[in-house]
Amino acid sequence: MPELPEVETVRMGLEPVLTGQTFARVTTHRADLRFPFPENFAKRLTGARVMRLERRAKYLIAHLSTGEALLMHLGMTGRFHVQAKGEAVAHLLGDYEYETGAQPKHMHAVFDMRGGARVTYADPRRFGYMLLVPDAELAEHALMRGLGVEPLSDDLTPAYLARRAVGRRSDLKAFLMDQRIVAGLGNIYVCEALFLAQLRPSRPASVLATRGGKPTVHATRLAAGIKAVLKAAIAAGGSTLRDYRQADGSTGAFQNTFQVYGREGEPCVRPGCRGIVRRSTQAGRSSFYCPVCQH
After folding, report:
1. Cross-strand bridge partners of residue 82
2. Whole-model pTM?
3. What is the spatial distance between Cα 229 and Cα 254, in angstroms, rounded to a whole number?
4. CB-based contact 209:166 (threshold 8 Å)
5. What CATH number belongs to 4-140?
6. What positions carry a catalytic annotation?
7. Considering only the top CATH level, what class is 158-289?
């Protein structure tokens, strides 16, 4: 499943063709994705202008002139084909699982913009979905209200991590992947951030806080590590796991700089460390770490 940097990369690729533009025609080629398309989906979008396009956790949200928000989740295999005005061939934004080309059977929704661009949503496994939610109700929507802080925002601080971690028995991996605590983090970037913070994934989350709830040095290093890893991944266009592609159709490159993820049995990259990267399983997910410099 695409993680925060991949979704942000797709948002940046969509922004030039959607923001400030009006839906001239909307076509759906089936009744549902993971969930049914909203009632009168095409009619409600046609004539609406995209005021801004943002990301919340792993969701894309297009705020519309009609007072509604188009909420989009890419699921496992969702991606957008964008054909800007003047382009002869559409380019791909996000191909996370399978290389299926441009098979018509996977093209489920087409958005023709008044400015001349065409955006097509494809999803071979149909785990993605699109919803229309009144803007005024968005923050309290079931998918939004329980989300934790955005990891790249000023809200993610050592003090916040300590406040949420004090007294917790869960391990750091589970703590960071809990979307109610930090929104948008997934397996890859949790492993990488914990490496930067020199913390083992199996350590109890309570190491981030003193008994009085104040942040420890671990919380300070972890908050910085999360932000550093995500910023680097976005700058690199995300990670190519199988076939993910970024805004210009080229593959994301962050996987070329993984410190631990997917590197089981390889030497630790930290200068002076002689550790060998190990893999363990936590809650059914692989964790990668250095047993020497991650404590």
Report:
1. 91, 119
2. 0.87
3. 10
4. yes
5. 3.20.190.10
6. 2-3, 58, 285
7. mainly alpha
